[in-house]
Design goal:
binds calcium ion; 7-stranded mixed β-sheet; TIM Barrel; alpha/beta; binds ligand C2E; elongated; Rhopdopsin 7-helix transmembrane proteins
Amino acid sequence: MQKLLYFDLCSLPIFLIMLVAVFARRTTKGNANRLYISLIILSALCAVSDVMLESVCSSLPVSDTRLIVANVFTYIYFLTRTATIVVYFFFVFAVTGTWYRIRRKRMKAILLIPFAVVLLTIATNPFTNAVFTVTSEEGYKRGYAIFIVYAISTLYALTGTIYLISCHRFLSKNKLFPLISLYVLAMGAVLVQYFFPFLMIEMIATAFALILVILFVLRPEEISDASVGSLSFEAYKTELRKILLTKQKVKIAIICFTNAYELRSYLGEVRYQSYVAHVIRQLDILFRRERVFFDIYFEHPGTMYIIIDNPEYDVEDAYHRLAEELMRRSEKAVSAGERLSAAACDLVVPDDLNSIDEIIRFGRDFSQQMPQGRTFAEAAEIISSKDYRIISNMDRILNRAIEENRFRMYYQPIYSVEKGRFVSAEALIRLFDDEYGIISPGLFIPAAEKRGVILPIGDFVLEEVHRFISENDLAGLGLEYIEINLSIAQCMQEELPERLAFLSDKYGVTPDMINLEITETTYEDTGSVMDFNLEALAGIGYTFSLDDYGTGFSDMQRVSKLPLKIIKLDKSLVDDMSSDEGMSIVRNTIKMMRDIDKKLVAEGVETKENLDYLEKIGCHFIQGYYFSKPLPEDEFVMFIKEHNRINA
Ligand code: C2E
Ligand code: CA
Ligand code: CA
């Protein structure tokens, strides 16, 4: 009977569309995706050979050529058909994130033995005619050994199905069923073809199953982050869940751009992303050379997670080589390399941490807790530190601190070079915890910002400083104003001007007694509310300082447009003054700022040399341990009375 070719023919455009879709969606990275591509290609080849067998061969005149062509396509058919089943079997491991189970070469070899038997059987067919024969007299005829080929395909299919079912715990149903569908549909098709040999529906059934897989399992928005060409953060979480459930041991290398926000606003979104993509490509090249099995995941704005199957792998060494490589090539990509600052660590799961939430939080927080002066650390070292324990318990610490009002304000004197006395102070918050003692605002302020509890803390600061000013005669102490740090959230609060006006009334504190500190990052991340607030507050007499100048990518033009009275040079610039280059940076910054009529505060001045030099090059104000650490209210007042020679 004439066979129906339509089904096979229909499957071809489907395979083609899938292939185009895979490349268009850029889901070509990672084992699962690569195997999926092989599946499409193999299936398409299989369908082509099927079609060729039926159409070309029957239309050719009976001849030797026809016989050869028929033989060739029959071999291709058998090879690609079995290979599809085998590749799908490996695909199942990749897509369920359990590749580590078959990672070892020996394991893979064992799993490939049955396939090798098939290959051998097919390869010897020209001599044995055991699988099939194609002759001009009888056409295609099955041999006894075809049983081996079918039995082994069935073996792979059955094992694959059972394995998938055993993975049901970490595969959602809308992934499990599409994955099993390939087996179900293929088996069904084989059965149908057995009874109705003219219905060649095997390949269209495979095509349908692969459509289900691409629609429900390989969802690019879930798996890959096309903007930088890596796997996505969502995929990272899914992978972590699987790793923890299957109790495998892996190493996770985490690399974090610590100045990602600044870098992004400096380069712009597009160039920043292309820079990240460049770094990820370098990582990819590096790890490929290492011959370890790895996957790279990215979390915006700038954290890369590299899951490495081998828990013994030396990440530190690889990280330093990557850094060198990036330095060498940075000019070629974007000249951002030298401006990039990064921190990296390696984490062993589940030994170091064993819950998803902790692992994710660690990835986000570790860079703030790197040991002094280092860019690489082992996670275990960070996790065992006191700061980390504090960070891990931050929810609890912040909640009880807010409930029990455990915050106090400290004041750090600021010295005026011109007047030769202290003219102001920066208000700095402190948290006293029963369990952990004094907790640095450097730890809890960013945490409070992330957790959305910064506003009540900011309110407390505003109220406390107003109370302090109202209870002490500022002018009498020789002080002109107190500097208050504003967080991003506060700056974006529409009620900020109202709130300050209210406090000003309540405590009789005029705007000139207060200076508000904002940072450049604050300014960049916020929108019109912030502009409105700044203008409104400047309009009624509040002044602003730009905090931490020199840590971001400062743009003079923008600085000159903001309503700023004071620029605060970050401690890192002051610390760098030990080198000639650092000194000239500070000197030129001060000169530039003086030209556009800004006052300058140098922060973190600890030594007499730095003080003398800063005075000489025209810095207006000095703040730092050289004069005093931040002090509790009464000690601060005493300090000022003593040093400003105020008689009680
Ligand atoms: P910041 O605004 O840059 O504050 C200056 C920091 O440098 C303070 O750290 C201060 O104690 C420290 N410092 C001053 N002089 C020296 C010095 O000579 N040597 C050294 N090593 N350090 C010096 P602190 O108090 O730990 O505050 C850390 C950060 O926490 C602040 O950095 C600020 O960003 C934030 N912060 C502190 N209080 C508040 C607040 O009331 N509200 C908000 N939103 N943030 C605050
Ligand atoms: Ca400050
Ligand atoms: Ca500062």
